[in-house]
Structure formats: structure tokens, C-alpha cells
Amino acid sequence: MASGSVTSSWTTKQNKMFEKALAVFDEGTPDRWHKIARAVGGKTSDEVRRHYELLVEDLRRIEKGYFSLKE
After folding, report:
1. pLDDT bracket for residue 2 (50, 70, 90)
2. What count of Cα atoms within 13 Å lies in the side-chain half-sphere of residue 4?
3. What is the DSSP letter of 42?
4. DSSP-derived secondary structure letter, 33
């Protein structure tokens, strides 16, 4: 993830919890971002949603060849 675009820092543990929560709470889950924020801890639902949006943006850039996974 592009560190300059992140509004708050995320620990390795929070990122792991975020990944696990994304697998549990799919797109159809009511109050998805609130539930993921509770699972992560220390983040608001807005921070979690923005973290996801940045992740998706980074993945799109990688797929388009803007970034090399070797960097």
C-alpha cells in the first residue's frame, strides 16, 4: 500500500485482522465496515473503508503494470 496515501498507520497485526475480517464479512454483510472495524480494533469504520479502497486502488495499479511486485 502506498504509505504516503494512508491517513493513519496500521500495524502488522491490524492488517492481518483486516484481511481475516474481509474474508468473514463479504460485500453483502450489513454494517460491513463497522463489523470489520470492531474486528480490527483501534480503527473507525471510515478508516477501514478507506484502507480497503486504497488496497483495491493499489491492486488495480499492479494489474495495469504501474508497479512491479519486485519493487
Report:
1. very low
2. 0
3. S
4. H
